[in-house]
Structure formats: structure tokens, C-alpha cells
Amino acid sequence: MSSALLQLEGFCVSYGPVEAVHHVDLRVDAGEIVTVIGPNGAGKTTLLSAAMGLLPSRGRLLLGGEPMARISVEAMVARGVGLVPEKRELFGEMPVEDNLLLGGFSRWWRGERDQRKRMDEVFAIFPRLAERRAQLASTLSGGERQMLAIGRALMARPRLLMLDEPSLGLAPLIVREVLQVVSSLRQHGVSVLLVEQNARAALQVADRAYVLEMGAVALQGAASELLHDRRIIDTYLGLGGRAGEAATS
Ligand SMILES: Nc1ncnc2c1ncn2[C@@H]1O[C@H](COP(=O)(O)OP(=O)(O)OP(=O)(O)O)[C@@H](O)[C@H]1O
In what residue span(s) does the ABC transporter domain sit (predicted)? Predict the structure, then answer.
């Protein structure tokens, strides 16, 4: 089997004495959209944050088959991994363009000076952002803010984009629009690791899925098969497919 773009082996994350993610094995191959679904508190954000180097972890993380000796945000960004955090963390008092340019800063720092060209490529993916290039980020709609957060991460030209709950707080139609763009990223050479509570929407755009329950992988497989799995339907695809509501009610 060829080397995965990202591979986690026996990956564990703890908050003090409490282990929140237990021995997770996961892979994302080049060109894949992989989703991690699961109820509130399952450990999805913790897993993603630790895989980006924002939290300490145990176990192994390999990029392109090479184990990372130390997982830091700088090292992950330099190796072509980007994260769009759940809170989006935009600079509200800055226009769309400046938010995007800041996303390209790590490349600029390394001597690359083609940020304007890259911004035009991002605008081609998100035409709605191009129309609003001078608008302050704080005045964008929820969907536009999510697109800007993704666009900003794309400015660093990642090979793998990790997205934490891009559907959060968005109306169903907008969720579909945002996730369609996410699934189109592979045409631009970007693979995706998508953490979602909206199981139905995530399974509809992903190739493969992992179901995380209480910090451990409870189930995994082709997204198209999990969409028809009785256990997934009963637990996660109830009214609206909001995993947390189904699993905690
Ligand atoms: N900073 C923290 N300190 C201690 N425990 C934490 C911290 N952040 C999260 N946890 C705990 O770790 C577990 C996993 O939380 P996490 O936020 O990763 O879950 P999640 O699957 O992303 O949930 P949600 O979908 O609600 O965001 C939970 O039990 C949570 O209470």
C-alpha cells in the first residue's frame, strides 16, 4: 500500500490525567475526503487539534509515510497541512483581502511573493469572496465567514486541509454549499480531513468515515456504506442528522 498523506497510529490525547482520545488509528490518502463523525464530547476537536500540534499527544503521526518526531503547528504548516478551526478565528475588523493575505504569511515568510496570484486562485474557488473582497470580515454572513476561513487556510497551499465543524451554525442550504466546495477541493490537489457533527452532510461528501465515540474509533468504512448502516442511521441520521442530539437524547 502506498504511503498515506496523513496517518495516525495509536494516537492518544489527554487533558491532565484524563485521556480524551484513545489509541486512534486513522489515515487520509492523497485525493481523499475523510470525515470523523461522532456525538458531542466524543473527542473530535481534541483529535484534530492534537494532530495539528496544538495539544500534546502520544502515539505516531506520519506524513507521507515519514513519522513526525515533534508535532508542532509550524512543522505541520511547513509540511503542507492546514487547519480551519471550529471558531473560524477571522480578523473581523479587517477586510476579506487582508484576512486572506495573512493566511499566506507563512509562505511569504519563506520568500514566496505570489500571494496576489494565490488570492485570485482562492477567489476562483469562492467567487462570493471576490465580490466582497473589500468588506470587513465581521460583516459577512455565516456561510461567507466559513468560506473565508477555508480560503484563508488555502492561501498557504496545503496538501491536506483539516476542517473542524464547518457546518456549525449554518442553515442547511448553506451547509450543503460549503461542503460542496470542500469536496471540490480535491480537484485543486487538496485532500480533506473533515470533523463534523452533521453526520448526514459529512457522509454525503466524504469517501471514507470514522465514527468516534468516547474518544475511540467505534466504526469505520466507506461513507456511502455507512450512510446505509442501520446503526449509523439509528444513532446519527435521525432528525436532521445531528449526531450529538441523537446520541445524547
Ligand atoms: N481544555 C479541556 N480541558 C479538559 N477537558 C477537555 C478540554 N477540552 C475538551 N475536553 C474534554 O475532552 C472530551 C472531548 O471533547 P471535544 O471537544 O474534543 O469533543 P468533540 O467531539 O469535538 O465535541 P463537540 O462536537 O461538542 O465539539 C470531552 O469530554 C471534553 O469535556
Answer: 6-239
Predicted TM-score (pTM) of the model is 0.90
**What are the sequence ranges of the domains in the chain?**
88-157
Distance from the alpha carbon of residue 153 to the mean position of ligand 1, in angstroms: 23
| Range 77-114 burial, b when 16+ CB lie within 10 A, else e | beebbbbbbbebebeeeebbbebbbbbbebbbeeeeee
**β-pairing verdict for 81-84 and 160-164:** parallel
Distance CA 44, CA 97 (A): 31
The grid cell for 137 is: 470580515
Residue 207 DSSP one-character state: S
Angle at 153 between CA 152 and CA 156, to 5 degrees: 100
**Average pLDDT of each block of 10 consecutive residues along the chain (249 residues)?**
88 96 97 94 96 95 93 92 86 90 75 80 92 93 93 94 92 90 91 94 95 96 94 77 40
Q: Please tell me the distance between residue 215's alpha carbon and the centre of ligand 1 in angstroms.
A: 9
Q: What would the grid cell of residue 70 be? A: 515533534
**What is this model's ipTM?**
0.94
Q: Is the CB of 41 under 6 A from ligand 1?
A: yes
